[in-house]
Every structure is written in structure tokens, then in C-alpha cells.
Amino acid sequence: MLFKHLISSLIFLILTFNLVFGDEKTCTETNCQLPSCQCPVTNGNPTSLNITDIPQLVLFTFVGNLNQYTFDSIRSILNPAHRNPNKCPISSTFFVNDNYTDYCLVQRLFNNHNEIAMTTSSNRCPLTNCYEENHWRRWIENDWKREIKQQRTNLIDQSHIHRSHIKGFRVPHLQIDDNKHVDLIRNYHFHYDSSMLFKSSDLIWPFTMNYLLNTTNCINCDDKSNKTIESLWQFPLHEWTRPNASSACRTLSDPTCLPEDEVQTADLFFNLIKYNFDRHSSSNLGQRSPFIIELDLFWLSEHQNKRLEGLIRFIEYILNSEDHRHVYFISIEQALEWLKYPRKLNELEDFWAFSCNDIIYDYDIDCVNFDLNFSHKADAKKLISTNKTNATDSELKDRHAEDLFRSDIVFHSIWIFILLIIIVLFYDHYFSNK
């Protein structure tokens, strides 16, 4: 009798969970909800807001060597006179490696409200011998572990940036290797990865990696790189294209982005950037999907007269146009908070993630050497609040570890099943013989 009741209860439990939770392999609005989960949406609007209420986010992401040689270009782009509609200076994200990096400048960027993310320490190519090195070999898992751990340590120790501020990662040269890096950065409590490159025809919004992704249109993905990591966001890059072009290019620094038979001028660069911006901003195609631009620091500094001029012309064109009061130049870190907790355009002036708290921006300030002795809690607290432009950080909740209800299925299954057993035992003992 008892065995029969247990079997019946087990069947009932299985049917109930199948009905409630459905197919957990498919991302839907039912099993994936903000702020911990976002399904991939291509050429559409994933929010509940009207398109006209959505800000167009432009995300400058810098890669390459950060030093005095490349810093002048950065200073020109991040000129405090370049201000978003909420009157705050524009900001950006830097994926820092260790090659020829001046960590004093890293700290200076961080103190001026820019996001410091990271790539690997050496910035070598993990899959192909990009630089024709004599002793190059394809990376194994231990190489990824060593490279990621080392660069995280470099930023903490040499830039004096608390580990809680290091939230983003991008693989070197966009070379994804079976997503070996994903588990590693998740173990370090990173909030996002920005390594996937998609075709220009598929303008995909940032999404979480809770569910398997259709990687058909992912250019640098392979069969083994499709894995699930709960609550880890992916900020995808897209190919660049131009009118009447027969092919697209991977990044802005790709020499095939511009016609080979034309002189590369600032006008050409401006038109290329604006054309791709318009595709993201279009109500028919991108529907204001975030426009992520990867800028190689060495490439940008190599021919400042045309590349830098074209980029700054684009920034000033957008910021000075009454038709583009919906555009914000921000960091990925800031964009992530908006994606988790969407706000309408008319609410962004008071949105904490976009605020600047009347901070005076100065890229010529001296670096500060902190005593990294954490023996006293006061010292640790002082270091955590180093970023004065983000003074409210201590008041904010870190929702990165928030789990969806589906994450507790095992827990709920156990206690429901135990409860059923108790009920069956109780019934069998007191009522079965009556």
C-alpha cells in the first residue's frame, strides 16, 4: 500500500513539474526574466518599452596597449566637454592587458568614471599565430587560467582597483576557444563577457547565457563554444558594413572596412561609423540595439589626422544634434544596469547608473598610491570606494548572483517530495485500515 502511494506521488510530482516549468532548454519570457536573465533578441525590441522611450546606447570599448603614446587619443575622445543629454560627460570601457600598459593611466581613467575591464595578460593570440612568434603554441586550459588570473592581479595590485569593480572580459583578438574563458571569469564573479561577433544582418541585443544560443550567425563561435552560464551577460559585437558593399569587416580597425581604391579620409570614417550607427538605431532593423564599437588604441593613434578626427566628428555630431537627444555614450557597466532595470528616456536624468554627481573630470591628475594592507577594515573600505564618481556603490546591491526561481528547482523538489512522503505515511498509518 505504501509503495503504491509513493509511486503515485512520484508520477504526480513529475507531471506537475513538466507542466509548470515546461522545456527548460528553450529561453522564453516565462522562464527567463530580468534582472538575472534575458533571452537573445535579434532585430527586435526585448523591453516592454516603446522604441521611442528607449535610449540609443553607444558603447566605446578600447583594446590594445594603454600608455602615454595612446593616451592623447583617449583624452580627445573623452573630453569632458562631450556630454550626454543628462549633462554628464561621456564614458567608455577599457579591456586592459599587460603589454606596455601604464597602470597609472588605468587608475586615472577609472577615477574619471570609465570602466576598467580586462582581457588576458599577454594579449597573445590563443588560436592562431597572429604575430608569427617563434615559440607560439595553441593555448590549453591552463594557459587561459594563468593569463586571466595574472591580469586580474595586475589590475588590483598596480592600478589599485578593487576586484569588485572588475566586471567585464573580452578574449584577445576575439578568438574564442571552446569558451574556455567563460567558466573562469564566472568563478571570479565577472558580470559579463563581450567576445562574440555576429553578422551585420543580425543586430542582436545583449543577453544572458542561461540557455543555449543559436550560434549560426556567430562568426567567431564554434560547436563547442555554446555553453550555458547562469546570469552571465554577453555583450555581442557586430560586423561593420557600408552601402553597396559586397562583404563586411570584423572590426573598425580592419583595413577592408573602407574601399581600397579610395583615399582614407576623416569623411570616410565618419560616414562608415554613422551608417552603422543608423542601422542599430533604425526602428525597422536594430530598434535601438546597443551600438558597441571596438577601438584598437594603437590603430587609433597611428593616423590621428583621419581616424580620430572622423570619430570625434561623429561624437560631436550626435551630441550637438537635437534629433539625437536619445543617444547616450556610456560604458558597458552602465549599460548593463539599464538592461537589468530599464528606464524610459524621461527618467534617465535621475537614473543612478548614468549619473555623475557633479564630479570634476580631470585626466591630468597624479596617480595615487594606496596602501594595500587589508589588515584594517577601514583601509579596505577606503579602497573599495576609490572610484569617487561612483560614490553610491556602497549603497547599491550586487544583483549579479540573483537566481531565477528555476535555479531552486532541486530544493523545491526535495521538500515537496518529503512532504508527500510524510502525508502518505500519515495516511497509511491512520486511515488505510479504516
Describe this structure in words.
The protein has eleven helices and eleven strands. By secondary structure, it is α/β, with parallel strands linked by helices. Strands 1, 2, 3, 10 and 11 form a five-stranded parallel beta sheet that branches. Helix 1 (2-21) runs antiparallel to helix 11, helix 4 (141-158) packs parallel to helix 5 and helix 6 crosses helix 8. The relative contact order is 0.17. The model is unreliable at 15-23 and 370-408 (pLDDT under 50).
Distance between the termini: 13 Å
The ordered string of helix (H) and strand (E) elements is HEHEHEHEHEEEEEHEHHEHHH
Q: Which oligomeric form is depicted?
A: single chain
Number of strands: 11
The percentage helix is 25-40%
Could you describe the largest sheet, including whether it forms a barrel?
A: 5 strands, parallel
Q: How much of the polypeptide forms β-strand, as a percent range? A: 5-15%
Low-confidence stretches: 15-23, 370-408
Keywords:
5-stranded parallel sheet, globular, 4-stranded mixed sheet, single chain, 11 helices, alpha/beta, 434 residues
